[in-house]
Amino acid sequence: MTTTVTSPASAATTDAMVRVESLARTYGTGDTAVHALRDVSFTIAPGELVALVGRSGSGKTTLLNCVGGLDRPDGGRVVVAGREVSSLDEDGLVDLRRDVVSYVFQTFGLVPVLSAAENVGVPLRLRKLPASVREERVALLLDLVGLGDHAEQRPGEMSGGQQQRVAIARALASSPRLLIADEPTGQLDTATGQAVMALLRAVVEAEGMTAIVSTHDPLMMSLSDRVIRLADGRVLAE
After folding, report:
1. Count of structural domains within the chain
2. What is the mean pLDDT of residues 145-150?
3. In this protein, which residues make up the domain named ABC transporter (predicted)?
4. pLDDT, tens digit (0-9, with 9 covering 90-100), for 158-194
């Protein structure tokens, strides 16, 4: 069941995993300025899967980038897991992306020369985990996304849906508290996209994390706990 956000207090503000307050982001100046975000506010509670919807150019990607620390707002603030993202320095942002937030993009972003298992293991190598721990976690995640038998295949030997499953497994490798997915089914056919969306719902529950997913797909909206609708950089109240 889905509902549309009607106020920033739609999730508990005291225990929010994500809190966005009066967020603004403008690109350019003068007559050519693009107001990507205008006074955006909402909260997301721990364990929620929230669908972010809106037409192209509505501000979805800019909002996700500000929440995840890939972009900085011009005004307002973002707090993720108690950390004020909008005020972190570069080291703080690196820590955030390593320990708290993971991303899934529609372009997959896998390393072509690495196998599925090696791609999933990259975040664990960066954390310098022992090989035995790393291998166990990678095997568990590939099984979770239904690719246990494809561990040695490289991206070029896999379908688009399989590559996106590897990308999801990689995003989960470091046990993030927040998963951000920007149009994760944008390059997939309808049937494969639906399977990936159902997988996202399942892994959010299995891993006990919070997720915010931008999408145009009604199925993803139906699988989410809430829907946040954007238009012209603003949150719609319906």
Report:
1. 1
2. 93
3. 18-238
4. 999 999 999 999 999 988 999 999 988 888 888 888 8
Phi-psi map region of 78: left, alpha, beta (phi>0 left; psi -120 to 50 alpha): beta
DSSP labels for 68-118?
Answer: HTSS--SEEEEEETTEEGGG--HHHHHHHHHHTEEEEETT----TTS-HHH
Range of the domain at 152: 46-72+88-235
Distance CA 38, CA 102 (A): 25
Taking alpha carbons only, the member of 194, 115, 183 closest to residue 161 is 194
d(CA 199, CA 16) in angstroms, rounded, equals 24
CA 165 – CA 108 distance, rounded (Å): 9
Angle 49-50-53 from CA coordinates, rounded to 5°: 145
How much is the pLDDT for 237? 61
Give the CATH number, domain containing residue 138. 3.40.50.300
Copy the structure tokens of residue 37: 């975000």
109 in a domain, yes or no? Answer: yes
Does the residue 21 lie in any domain?
Answer: no
Predicted pLDDT at 158: 95
Residue 3: pLDDT over 60: no
Q: Please tell me the pTM assigned to this model.
A: 0.86
Letter for the amino acid at 213? Answer: V
3-state secondary structure of 61: helix
Q: Which residues in 17-28 are b (16+ Cβ under 10 Å) and which e?
A: bbbbbebbbbee
Q: How many residues can be counted in the chain?
A: 238
Give the DSSP letter of residue 57.
Answer: T
